[in-house]
Amino acid sequence: MNGEEADNFLAVFEGDSFDEKSFAINVLQTQVVSEVIEKIDACIGNGIDTLESVLSVVQSRTDALLQGLKKIRARIGEPYARLEQRVLHLRRVQSACDFLRRSGRIFALAKKLPPQPAAGVEEAATLPEDQLGKVAQTLGDLGHQFSGLDWRGVHALEREHRRFARWREAAETRATALLVDARGIGSSS
């Protein structure tokens, strides 16, 4: 400090307006505030350092978990795809088995029908009444088997379906004729 600055500095302490208590309080307050600010800065600096180290640990653990997840996906991905293919294959096999089972049931039911309603409606009149119930039951079972089955394109099943349709028409005609006869209504039409 040069001489003029020192005089100005000391001029504060001279005179009647100088209050020692106020000056001391002001100096102490300035000192305390600067120390508090230093401690806060130190705490913040330590907190930031601690937070950065915690975040670094969390980041490294997250990276390790992601690597583990990638390994698990690699281990599971291929077996899952194979299992999915096998399930699809099993569904197809089950569908084929169901088709064969229903086809076999159709052929077994078709054997229960008398050979053929020869000329169709005229031949239906020769169907004995005691066989009409059995034929109707067999036709109902055949209708159920054909209803949920995609049989088109299978020649043996198409043939049985045509036979089934002829028998159904013949049985309906015979049943209608028996009802008309039972009621005593003459058939003039």
Q: How many structural domains?
A: 2
Task: Quickly count the helices.
Answer: 5
Number of strands: 0
Q: Hey, roughly how much beta strand do the residues contain? A: under 5%
Low-confidence segments = none
Distance between the termini: 141 Å
Based on CA atoms alone, the radius of gyration comes out at: 52 Å
GO biological process, one term: intra-Golgi vesicle-mediated transport
Protein name: Conserved oligomeric Golgi complex subunit 5
Pfam families: COG5_N
InterPro entries: Cog5, COG5_N
Account of the protein in words:
The protein is mainly alpha-helical. The protein has two domains: 1-94; 113-183. Helices cover 81% and strands 0% of the residues. The protein has five helices and no strands. The longest helix has 93 residues, at 20-112. The chain is rod-shaped and about 145 Å long. The protein starts with a helix and ends in a 6-residue tail after the last helix. The mean pLDDT is 82. Residues 48-113 form the Conserved oligomeric Golgi complex subunit 5 N-terminal domain. One of its GO terms (biological process) is intra-Golgi vesicle-mediated transport. Pfam families: COG5_N.
Blueprint (SSEs and pairs):
Layout: H1 3-11, H2 20-112, H3 121-124, H4 129-147, H5 155-183
Summary keywords:
5 helices, mainly alpha, 2 domains, 189 residues
